[in-house]
Design brief:
The chain is of the alpha/beta class. The protein has helices spanning 35-42, 76-88, 139-151, 188-194, 204-214, 236-257, and strands spanning 25-28, 47-52, 55-62, 65-70, 93-102, 112-121, 135-136, 156-164, 197-201, 217-227. The two termini are 24 Å apart. Bound molecules: uracil.
Length: 260
């Protein structure tokens, strides 16, 4: 399935090789509402080319090269569909830009986390590669994300993330309807903290496992919207700050990546 022309719209994204105008780069936010903001941040003339279910895609240009912004929805299964279908259409570089909850004490809301690898507490990635296979980020993308954060004086942390399929029990949150953490997850946050894992999020393991398995480039940056050492909820002002810094860093990084 390498670089073949796909003239019909793929089932979930509703995109084909003509619509994406040869794009080889994609930003992957989770939220469809964030797609226009990211696209307009690098190209004021960016346009919407698809919107089905949670999958919204805008297309813009950086240095005359086509760049996509496609929302993944939340979690591994919907994210795997985006990475798989965009890869079928010829995309080679995937940059997830999302939000996250920090689990180390020194990380503040508004900081960004640049993931080098992800603990695979998801399910979707296991459908593509065995659990022993590492979910690692592309070295070049990590390097460029660091450069981009430094260039904009955004406080950043580089390291391992944990990707879970659930926001509540899988991230050990008791403030749920169930108010019960199954045995499998009890004590998980403390263990991850001691293993120097930086944060919880829900998509990195899927993006990084699939990209590595496909021989493509994958990277993840997430804006911190809460620190689980202090709170379990997300304050609206922290959400804005985390999102804004992650998007600024990701857009700057993509400007560099399209030239590499
Ligand atoms: N996203 C997550 O998955 N967890 C958080 O705590 C915040 C954002």
């Amino acid at each position: 399935m390498k670089n073949r022309s796909i003239p019909f719209a793929l089932y979930h994204l509703g995109l084909d090789t003509v619509k994406i105008e040869g794009a080889r780069y994609a930003f992957l936010p989770g939220d469809p509402g964030r797609v226009p903001e990211i696209a307009k941040a690098f190209d004021p003339n960016a346009k919407e080319i698809g919107y089905k279910r949670e999958y919204r895609t805008w297309l813009g240009k950086i240095n005359a090269k086509s760049v996509l912004v496609t929302s993944t929805g939340i979690g591994g299964p919907s994210t795997s569909i985006v990475v798989d279908e965009l890869a079928q259409l010829g995309v080679k570089t995937f940059l997830r830009v999302g939000t996250t909850g920090a689990i180390q004490p020194a990380i503040l809301a508004g900081d960004v986390i640049i993931t080098t690898g992800a603990v695979r507490i998801d399910g979707a990635s296991t459908h593509y590669a065995p659990i022993e296979y590492p979910a690692v980020a592309d070295y070049e993308i990590v390097k460029v994300l660091v450069e981009a954060a430094q260039a904009q004086a955004i406080s950043y942390h580089v390291g391992i993330s944990a990707s879970c399929d659930t926001f509540y029990p899988g991230q050990e949150r008791v403030e749920s309807f169930f108010q019960y953490i199954p045995r499998r997850f009890k004590g998980q946050t403390e263990e991850l903290r001691r293993l120097h894992v930086l944060n919880y999020e829900m998509e990195a393991a899927t993006v990084l496992t699939l990209c590595s398995a496909f021989g493509l480039r994958g990277g993840c940056i997430a804006g911190v919207v809460t620190n689980r050492m202090k709170e379990n909820g997300v304050a609206p002002e922290d959400l804005v700050l985390g999102e804004r810094n992650a998007i600024k860093t990701a857009v700057e990084a993509m400007r560099i990546l399209v030239q590499v």
